[in-house]
Amino acid sequence: MARGELQIVLDQLPRPIRETIEGYVDFAEEASEELFSEVGIARTDDLMSEFLFLCGLRRLWSLVDADYWILDNSLAITREFGIGGVRAGGIDYAHGTGFVAQLAELRGQLQAILDQADVLTLVRAQHLSEMLEMLSHRRQS
What is the DSSP string of 41-63? Predict the structure, then answer.
């Protein structure tokens, strides 16, 4: 599988996260023939490599973003009942403190990096076919 620079990113991540992303990229690679056909784009090695890299970034973003919003929304609900935070698994969860603050900072940093690299819109695409189509149009410009 053509992973290129993605492997450098993956090697820095904890194994469970790395394996989740690798599984998603493997899925995207297996579905690529159908996706390229659906979008009507010729599949080249260069485009495929960039597509798979973006798939990895997409999965990383979705993991961080989803965890952030699940935690944020859950804490917002607890606040409605006068509960300032919760403790689970030995970790205190409250807005602006500890793990919650770290997750918010990680999400913000990742969003800034993806935005600076001009790929945030691509990784936020609703579907892989939409991301592929946007990538193709971007490369033609």
Answer: ----HHHHHHHHHHHHHHHHHHH
